[in-house]
Amino acid sequence: MASSSPRLLGALLCYNDGDLVQDAVGYLRSQGHDLVVWDHGSTDETPEVLRRLRAEMVELRTVPRSVDFYGLYQAMSEHLLAEYVSRYDWVSWPDQDEFLEGPDRARPYRDWVEEVLASPYDWVQFNNFNYWWTAADDVAVERAVDRVRHYCLFADCGPRIRAWRASATNVREFNHNAPLGQRFPTMFNLRHYPMRSEAQMRRRLEVDRAGLRRGGSNFHYDNMSAWRERLVVAPERLHYDDGRSELDHSLIFDWRSVYGTAGTAPS
Fold first, then answer.
1. 188 SS3 class
2. Closest C-alpha among 127, 247, 236, 130 to residue 189
3. What is the pLDDT of residues 209-262, one digit of tens each?
4. What CA–CA distance (Å, rounded) separates 102 from 228?
């Protein structure tokens, strides 16, 4: 008798990414995941899009902005532990502007997840491929994932730990801390779309993430606000993703020139 398909759960914390949230939901659904989605008081089109997609989710919740951002990952992970992990085999929890892939594009993400579940390992770490708007983008293309094609690996960012066995779930610290158990030895890949147009970038810095820094966390938004000229990246300084070829790991662009470090945050 053939074994049943693994039960996959996706988690999303959303805030003001209305241009991308339909793709984020659709991608995880296409990879066989049930979805738990929390919207942290978005003021753009995100709530409307999520309401329209409600049938695609097992849970949709609005969390008011009065709830501290720095407690959201803990709250969501505690909720998953209490309500969901006993019913699922796997949890995928990308940031709202990230799309998870396997180590290569020969197979879809879901197939790679099944390989990990058949192994003795418990969780996966991802390479962070940063996608950035450039002057070469075709503004007539509405979907950001189709329009924003230029990227480079961000090698020295915080660890992207975005997926694990449901039984390995623990309290998350911005999804950088290790879950329970052992890491799968091969890195997976993710596509990260933090800045998708000049207008969206300005809103993110001036409204959505303004004043978010606390201690050593989220210093990069202060840095980027202080040196706007660095945020315009020429397309020839990045790789181009045609959607089929393997992602290029060569470090032709230094993302620290855009994000800076904690010690360079303006006072």
1. strand
2. 127
3. 777 776 667 787 788 888 889 999 999 999 999 999 999 999 999 999 999 888
4. 34
Show the CA angle centred on residue 208, arms to residues 177 and 20, nearest 5°. 75
Q: Say whether pLDDT at 2 is over 60.
A: no
Alpha helices in the chain (DSSP H): 21-30, 46-52, 72-83, 109-117, 144-147, 198-203, 219-226, 256-259
Residue 123 is given by DSSP the state: E
Domain covering 8-197 assigned CATH 3.90.550.10 in the classification: yes
What is the sign, positive or negative, of the torsion defined by CA atoms of 133, 138, 141, 145? negative
Mean pLDDT of the region 10-37: 97
The pLDDT assigned to 205 comes to: 86
- Determine the length of the chain: 267
Cβ(193)–Cβ(148) below 8 Å: yes
Q: What angle do CA 224, 228, 230 make, to 5 degrees?
A: 85
Angle, CA of 43, 163 and 38, to the nearest 5°: 25
pLDDT bracket for residue 3 (50, 70, 90)? low
